[in-house]
Amino acid sequence: MRLVEAARGYLDVKWRHMGRSRFGIDCVGLVLLAARDLGHLVEDVPEYVRGAHGYDVVREIAARTRPASLGALREDLIILFRESIYPCHCGILGAGPHGWTLVHAHAKSGKVVEDPYDFWAELATHAFALPDREG
Q1: Is the whole model's pTM more than 0.85, yes or no?
Q2: CA atoms of 80 and 54, how far apart (whole Å)
């Protein structure tokens, strides 16, 4: 199973800041749970506030993944986005019949959704991939 397929298993789960279950999940929680569903032992990130105020989301995600290129998109990339000045949102890149998609837990949608990537592309700041599993 691919990371994006694991993430799609959470579609329509209610959005909740710092959520880490099917009862409520945020964007970071979605990446963590989807990775764990695939057997990756990904450490949770410390408590954080909504937005990037005082929290370095790039550093925290980079410590748990490996860098990838926004210029070489492929399914399963973890993409970071700025919704204001700083990166503060993430999702998992997928492919659909009409192009790239983004599976993400979005506060404005109130749940995990799969959106066309086109809107989000201009807000993308970083791309990461899960490390290869050991064993």
Answers
A1: yes
A2: 17
